[in-house]
């Protein structure tokens, strides 16, 4: 495509592409009501070093087409190799950690047509997956009622996706990761436990589960978490863990916790808590793992709330000591393993004017919103996010005037907000790269996480529901709606 633009003299024409997704993730028996933006800074880091090498150019030079002739011409390759390829791009985006919704521009790229086209696949590759995982992490953290959440997914991740997945999970709501490389990169200590094989090795060598636990405790006296379900959780694992915990305490150390990785996790958590309390360890954490997700956590907590009183346990104290280790269903986003994020040309410059561009489809939901646009978030008088609004660049948007909100593709679905309905208007797109120059360097994981939590607090409870979430309104101004309709009718003629 870049060479075809070059051959026709179109490669330097300013163009605008927008990255957006059409639907929130749908996991089959439940779906998300929002997404968490993630991956932007990973993409920008890639962009900084994405200069073709001599080997890259020689590889392209050697490619041939079906007839055997060279696929890429010398003039095009000289153009590509004799410049910093992305130095003229401008990138505006919703900041990482912010809540984002379908049909709104999450990332905007402007610059020479051929260069802006070349970043399509890398941008989608870096950002789509991380949005998917950050969203799942936020939902799982909410279902776990804010208790400590550990990302355990590296073994089930797709190669290096384990690193980007861990990063996204921590933006969305995970507190720590067992992935040491990702933890180092992000500046957080890795958190994990030993595997069943540690106990199995001792058993195979004629030793006992207790001896395995004692060996692990000697290695990590102040960070001791014991996996107690290799033999028999309630009759071997927990009693042996308690014996080791007593030994640690006698030596001046305090144990950290036990981990349950099989069986009826809710029932075993209640019974284990009872045993630990009776032995004098009411503060020891109980780590739950094994195929956890938001629905499973909801069920576990419901069951714990039902069973705990039967064993004389103080309910909230028990729930407070729970920790969740979530792996496969988080890192793979089980149930919906891809985000349908797309990258579409929406405007191109002709002379001094920007010309809106439209792609038609028989499916109304797949017709992108054309033209250059601004994106605003509207809050009501309670401070709750009530709608996101796409407007033309020249439109003024503020809380002192009435606003018309049109559904992106349903003509009869619209509403008008009076000044009394609007408590705050917030622009969402920020400039990260201006003609190749980075403007917002130094953003931290803590900042991403803070943004996510702030946005979730301001999102209506119905939109955050694990099951059957309420629809969040992404709307068009009357000017953008009329522009879209005029283009659709013009294409039809």
Description:
This protein has 493 residues and is α/β, with parallel strands linked by helices. The protein has two domains: 2-50 and 85-134 and 336-492, nicotinate phosphoribosyltransferase, CATH 3.20.140.10; 192-322, Alpha-Beta Barrel (TIM Barrel), CATH 3.20.20. It is 38% helix and 19% strand. It is built from 17 helices and 21 strands. It has helices at 2-7, 40-48, 54-62, 74-81, 113-118, 120-143, 161-172, 180-186, 196-204, 209-219, 233-250, 265-278, 294-307, 315-320, 328-331, 445-458, 478-492, and strands at 14-21, 35-36, 90-93, 99-100, 107-112, 149-151, 176-177, 225-227, 257-260, 285-289, 322-326, 341-350, 353-356, 374-379, 385-391, 403-406, 414-417, 424-427, 430-434, 437-438, 473-476. The strands form five sheets. A seven-stranded antiparallel sheet has the order 13-12-1-5-3-19-20. Helix 7 (161-172) crosses helix 8 (180-186), helix 7 crosses helix 16 and helix 11 (233-250) packs parallel to helix 12. It is globular and about 80 Å long.
């Amino acid at each position: 495509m870049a060479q075809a633009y070059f051959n026709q003299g179109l490669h330097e024409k300013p163009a605008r592409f927008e990255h957006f997704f059409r639907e929130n993730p749908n996991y089959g028996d439940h779906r998300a009501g929002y997404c968490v933006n993630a991956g932007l800074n990973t993409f920008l880091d890639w962009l900084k070093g994405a200069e073709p090498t001599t080997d890259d150019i020689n590889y392209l030079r050697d490619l041939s087409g079906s007839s055997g002739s060279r696929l890429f011409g010398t003039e095009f390759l000289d153009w590509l190799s004799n410049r910093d390829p992305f130095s003229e791009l401008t990138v505006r985006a919703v900041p990482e950690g912010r809540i984002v919704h379908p049909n709104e521009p999450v990332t905007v790229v402007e610059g020479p047509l051929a260069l802006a086209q070349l970043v399509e696949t890398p941008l989608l590759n870096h950002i789509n997956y991380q949005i998917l995982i950050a969203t799942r992490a936020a939902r799982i953290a909410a279902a776990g009622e804010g208790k400590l959440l550990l990302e355990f997914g590296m073994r089930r991740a797709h190669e290096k996706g384990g690193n980007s997945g861990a990063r996204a999970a921590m933006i969305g709501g995970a507190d720590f990761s067992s992935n040491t490389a990702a933890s180092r990169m992000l500046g957080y200590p890795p958190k994990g436990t030993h595997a069943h094989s540690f106990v199995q090795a001792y058993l195979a060598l004629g030793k006992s589960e207790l001896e395995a636990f004692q060996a692990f405790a000697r290695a990590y006296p102040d960070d001791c978490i014991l996996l107690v379900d290799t033999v028999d959780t309630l009759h071997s694992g927990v009693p042996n863990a308690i014996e080791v915990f007593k030994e640690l305490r006698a030596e001046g150390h305090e144990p950290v916790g036990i981990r349950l990785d099989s069986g009826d996790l809710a029932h075993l958590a209640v019974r284990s808590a009872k045993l630990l309390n009776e032995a004098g360890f009411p503060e020891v954490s109980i780590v739950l793992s094994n195929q956890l997700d938001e629905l499973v956590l909801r069920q576990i907590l419901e069951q714990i709330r039902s069973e705990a009183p039967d064993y004389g346990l103080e309910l909230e104290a028990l729930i407070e000591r729970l920790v969740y280790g979530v792996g496969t269903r988080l890192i793979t986003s089980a149930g919906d393993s891809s985000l349908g994020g797309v990258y579409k040309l929406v405007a191109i410059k002709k002379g001094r004017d920007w010309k809106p561009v439209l792609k038609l489809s028989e499916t109304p939901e797949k017709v992108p919103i054309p033209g250059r646009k601004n994106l605003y978030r509207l809050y009501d008088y309670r401070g709750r996010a009530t709608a996101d609004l796409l407007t033309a660049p020249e439109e003024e948007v503020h809380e002192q005037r009435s606003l018309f909100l049109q559904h992106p593709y349903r003509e009869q679905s619209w509403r008008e907000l009076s000044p009394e309905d609007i408590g705050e208007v917030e622009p969402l797109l920020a400039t990260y790269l201006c003609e190749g120059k980075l403007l917002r360097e130094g953003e931290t994981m803590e900042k991403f996480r803070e943004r996510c939590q702030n946005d979730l607090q301001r999102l209506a409870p119905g939109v955050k529901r694990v099951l059957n979430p309420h629809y969040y309104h992404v709307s068009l101004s009357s000017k953008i709606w009329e522009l879209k309709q005029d283009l659709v009718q013009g294409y039809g003629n």
